[in-house]
Amino acid sequence: MIEVVQAYDRKHVAEITSDNAASLEKKVSTAFKLFKDRRSWLKPHERLDVLHKLATLLQERREISARLIAQEGGKPLTDALVETDRAIDGVRCAADLMRTSGGREIPMELTAASTNRRAWTLIEPIGVVAAISAFNHPLNLVVHQIAPAIATGCPIIIKPATATPLNCIEFVKLVHLAGLPEAWVQTFLPEERGLSEAFATDGRIAFLSFIGSAAVGWSLRSKLAPGTRCALEHGGVAPVIIDQSADIEKLIEPLAKGGYYHAGQVCVSVQRIYAHRSVIQEFCELFQKRVERLVVGDPLSAQTEVGPLIKPAEADRVESWIAEAVSSGAQRFGGDRLSPTTVKPCILVDPPKSAKASTHEVFGPLTCIYGFDDLDEAIAEANSLPVSFQSSIFTQSLATALEAAERLDASAVMINDHTAFRTDWMPFAGRRESGYGVGGIPYTMHEMSAEKMVVFRS
User: Fold this and answer.
1) Of 168, 230, 267, 346, which one is the catalytic site residue?
2) Which one is the CATH code of 238-423: 3.40.50.300, 3.40.309.10, 3.40.50.1110, 1.10.10.10?
3) Are 224 and 230 in contact (CB under 8 A)?
4) Known catalytic residue at 284
5) pLDDT at 106
6) pLDDT at residue number 73
7) Is residue 407 scored above 90 in pLDDT?
8) 346 catalytic, yes or no?
9) Which one is catalytic: 72, 233, 305, 314?
């Protein structure tokens, strides 16, 4: 059995029956048999109808879903409502894309050998999808995995994070209520970590969608069966550059949001802030005042801006990273332990570049501030780590903005916005150690599809 507790106060929420090796085999064999029988594939209009009904059902339980997000994941209710709205839009996005997704004509008769032929491609589902999701967006992340699978016609088995399985379970129930036969979307809830690896590396899996830690993701990729495609979404240590021309007052609010949204438990959360020395004092003073005003507490309260970390062990880790940086000379603001899972938002000024807070993804309510003298120095520091995801620069200089956009090693560069900005239809991908493949509803649909060419000789 798996016990689910509230992230904030560790109170019991639910107990769920876990899956063993026998149930895993049954689920994978069911999905594989379904895919191999092409006569059982659902027509596009049937899948489209399911997605439309699913969006409506999800809209009807918007507040219920948001409250569940706040309970099991600890995300403040106001942000949980935003996550639910994004999930609804994600389902609709997958449905909309079905109207424009299709094959293409391949030119023929360009050589004498290709005369009297016509060629075109068909788009087919790639096969059985194994999806492993993360805790920090327990509804929207599973939508990013399940909705594309429905749209493309892939059977999918999804393993939510053990700490936050309830939104996934409820969402899958809605999928079935919307008319999709149960075998097309199944949940997998193992207690044993070894079963997760067996699930991902099964030879009948055609595509692995993994959202989680780099250590686990890269390990699984190295063990995939031959022919299995994958997409890995890990995290980063997101850098922000504040140019000397930046309007300091206007960037305080977006950086406070980008750094402390969901207590920093976001893979592109603002973590490293490089401020030009001519503006660093003003920035630090204003930023500190704003961070101190952040309301920390029960995520079910409408006033809360920063909730808990997912587990006490994570709060212990963040606390230890803060202590390490301070012992090495960093100046600290905030960071007090308020409860077993809650840490007050923290700012570290000039932590050592070798400190964990400077080099590893903190996944907690912590930002680090460093000074720089010229843009070359800031860009070099921003690009100095083996992780690479989203980054940003604040500036009023068009030339500086364009130069940074070209030179920052990132999959996306935000100009005058924080690093955690995302829409669900844009490409979302980590480079280098931060991931593999491209996320986002349209891109995941592409990853879950296979193109078949038909050549007709007349």
Assistant:
1) 267
2) 3.40.309.10
3) yes
4) no
5) 94
6) 95
7) yes
8) no
9) 233
